[in-house]
Amino acid sequence: MPIIGNIIKGFIDVRDKLATEKDPIAEQRDVLKRLLKTAKNTAFGEHYDFAAILESKNRSEAFAEAIPYHDYNKIDEEWWQKLHEGEEDVTWPGVPDYFALSSGTTGKTSKRIPVTEEMVTAIRDAGIQQVYALSNFEMPPDFFEKGILMLGSSTDLEEVGGHKEGEISGISASNIPNWFRGYYKPGEDISAMDDWDEKVRKIAEQAPEWDIGGLSGIPSWMELMLQEVIAYNKVDHIHEIWPNLQVYTSGGVAFGPYEKSFNALLGRPITIIDTYLASEGFIAFQARPDTDAMQLVTDGGIYFEFVPFDPDYIEQDGSLSEGAPSLTLSEVELDQDYVLIISTVSGSWRYLIGDTIAFTDIERAEIKITGRTKFFLNTVGSQLSVNKLNDAVQHLQNEFSIKIPEYTLCAKRIDEEFYHCWYLGTEDDADDAKLADALDAYLKGANKNYKVARSKALEGVKVTTVNPKAFSDWNGRNKKKGGQVKMERVMGEDKFKEWEEFVRSSE
Predict the structure, then answer these.
(1) Angle 196-206/219-232 helices, nearest 10 degrees?
(2) Of 344, 372, 400, which closes a domain?
(3) Which residues form the GH3 middle domain (predicted)?
């Protein structure tokens, strides 16, 4: 009988019954006030007169009027670089304890984002909220006695000038609470490994010794790890190794395109729970089973604003125009795409995180990620978000009974005509021409702007199928396997040329 599991489950269930009803809008007002009060004496707070904003009758409006939008380049050049020069109290009191190295979808370490102790605490608190939310998923008591395998970047952080640097998954894992260490797999030694292939080999070797109940990590790398564990141990599916596996906490990208290939690695269905942890903070998590939307963490260390996703407001490089209007949580509407803007306890202010979201339930503050501002495919007016592209790939998987865990595309000029050129990662037999026709037909029916574009400047669709390994090899070419690196869904023509040359050289 799972005695400890019953105790933990009982505590979570009781806490859920005693919890008061959330008021996300009021929580966000409190978060903004707390951020402004804490940072008013920093260089940033004095420059933008946070003291005056705090005295305003409408703080959110005064805040939006006083402070410009910042993408990473702007805030880094104007403010965060001072931290590297030894200055204190720049955009947040003191100096940050960590810098998150954000590889994103570039395959290169391109950003160094401050992570304060307050943010580490906020991430941990959001994780605890997610654990409490498991009461909604009716997990059996024995689940709470099983191990949780968290697959992320190395926890062996680099010491640089009085602070530590690493990817956010490594920073978070290096700060797990003591009570959780008994559940945490693959353990501190393996988690500290920087070499992805060595780490996965060690996991595969030790996997039969662990009783894993839950998995957590980016889908693409999680699939590769599970494939290695299955192959090394000569079994048909992962439940032969971990019969008590019941939950996978996904994150980093939409799970939809991976669902079919991921499920093929299982012996039976498990519960999939989405999370939204970025280098800038823990933004949202799925709090209930009857939706795949995620609830914004509105009472933590992040204040949210939302800019309507209108092509007139988006610059060519994915940044926002100065005149783009922002909305608060009290002003948003359902099923509209918004560019997500955050201000945080790590000293990010009106920061463009690069994602677009849509609300599925405003009262609960539940959202779906719909795409990336830089991956919005609007060449010749086709206006396709990553969400629409994901839907199209899932349609192909269903129509042709194939698995397509990875893809990328480009609006490419061929003989002076534009084509949408897709690369689909699949190990299944498929006819490229038939896939292209099906993609084209689906997008015409699902998106009126695409249909108009196809009648004018967009000449057609081309599809090339490749082994999915090409995508992980592309991401790993700069020794960034297994971290926060995610595949570019939409590429510019120069990057796409590199990709096509890479694929040809790999064949």
Answers:
(1) 50
(2) 372
(3) 297-362
Same domain assignment for residues 142 and 261 = yes
Q: Residue 443: give the domain boundaries.
A: 379-506
Q: How far apart are CA 248 and CA 265, in angstroms?
A: 12
Instruction: Count other C-beta atoms under 10 Å from residue 21's C-beta.
Output: 4
CA–CA gap between residue 66 and residue 55 (Å, rounded): 13
SS3 214: strand
Q: Do both 385 and 483 map to the same domain? A: yes
Regarding whether 471 and 366 lie in a shared domain, the answer is no
Cβ neighbours, 10 Å, residue 339: 28
| Tokens representing residue 491 in the block | 């590429």
Mean pLDDT (the chain) is 84
- Sign (positive or negative) of CA dihedral 120, 121, 126, 130: positive
Residues 234, 112 share a domain = yes
User: Which CATH number goes with the domain that contains 406?
Assistant: 3.30.300
Q: Do 200 and 323 lie in a common domain? A: yes
Exposure of 267 in the CB half-sphere (CA atoms within 13 A): 13
pTM metric for this prediction:
0.80
pLDDT per position as a tens digit, 317-360: 667 877 889 999 999 999 898 999 999 999 999 999 988 899 99
Give the end of a domain, one of 305, 338, 372.
372
Q: What are the residues facing 339 on neighbouring strands?
A: 307, 356
**CATH code of the domain covering residue 278:** 3.40.50.12780
Residues 267 and 118 in one domain: yes
Same domain, 418 and 346: no
Which runs of E-coded beta strand occur in 416-474?
417-425, 458-466
Cβ–Cβ < 8 Å for 303, 32 = yes
Evaluate if residue 109 carries a pLDDT over 70: no
Number of domains in the chain: 2
- Give the number of other CB atoms < 10 A from CB of residue 236: 9
Higher pLDDT, 431 or 5: 431
If you count them, how many residues does the chain have?
507
What does the alpha-carbon distance between residue 257 and residue 397 come to, in Å, rounded to a whole number? 9
pLDDT value for 434: 92
Q: Are residues 441 and 324 in the same domain?
A: no
Pair type for strands 98-102 and 147-150: unpaired
DSSP E strands, 290-365: 294-296, 302-308, 337-344, 351-361
